[in-house]
Structures are given as structure tokens and as C-alpha cells.
Amino acid sequence: MLQDIEVSFVAQKANTGNVFFPSKLLGIMAMGKPILVSADPDSELATVVSQSGCGLVVPAGDAQAAARQLNRLFENPGELARIGDHGREGVKAFDRNAVLGAFLNQIRSYARVPTP
Q1: Which of 12, 18, 57, 103 is the Cys-Cys partner for 39 at CB 3.0 to 4.6 Å?
Q2: Mean pLDDT by 10 residues, the chain (116 residues)
Q3: Domains in the chain, please, with CATH?
Q4: What would the 3-class secondary structure string for the chain be?
Q5: What are the residues facing 38 on neighbouring strands?
């Protein structure tokens, strides 16, 4: 079903930004589809989307800003594909082996255990 969409929309209620992180986000990113996020600008959700370049972020509850960003995306189909590709690439940062490997290396550094 996600393969047939052009843009995903993920909304978060204002002032819940660092309490919730939608589990569906990584699946959407992996599908290579752009994401339009309505969330607090300093939320983890907005940060991941902005830093990976896989979508656009508008303030939570700002329907006019969301409409403007959607229009912007659909005016340039090449941008849709480019942003989607960023999502596919950005999701690699959340790969289980990469995340757990980095975590293990950090624990080793605290314990002063040499990396094998």
C-alpha cells in the first residue's frame, strides 16, 4: 500500500514532540516516499525528517503551511523523487546492526574495553 502513495503525512499533536516517535516513520522512509510532517519543530520526529532530508516539516496544527508545502512538492515531481531517495538512504542510520554496534562501542569506551 505504501508503494502506491506519492507523499506520506505524519501528524503529531503540539507539545508531544519528545514523548512519542511514530514507529511507521522508518517504514515510510524505507519505501522511498517523501514525508510531510506536522509536528513541533524541535521534536525528534521533525529532527529526523529534517536531518535526513526525507521530507518537509510544518508546525503542528498549521494546515495552511501543510497545504503550501504539498503544493510545492507537487509542482516539482523531480523533488518528490529526490526527497524520497533521501529517506531510503536515511533509514540506514537506524539499521539494527549499526545502532547496536555504535551502542556497544560506546559501552566499551566507558569500560575501556578494546574494540575487537
Answers
A1: 12
A2: 83 82 86 93 92 95 94 88 90 84 86 68
A3: 2-111 (3.40.50.2000)
A4: CHHHCCCEEEECCCCCCCCCCCCHHHHHHHCCCCEEEECCCCCHHHHHHHHHCCEEEECCCCHHHHHHHHHHHHHCHHHHHHHHHHHHHHHHHHCHHHHHHHHHHHHHHHHCCCCC
A5: 11, 58
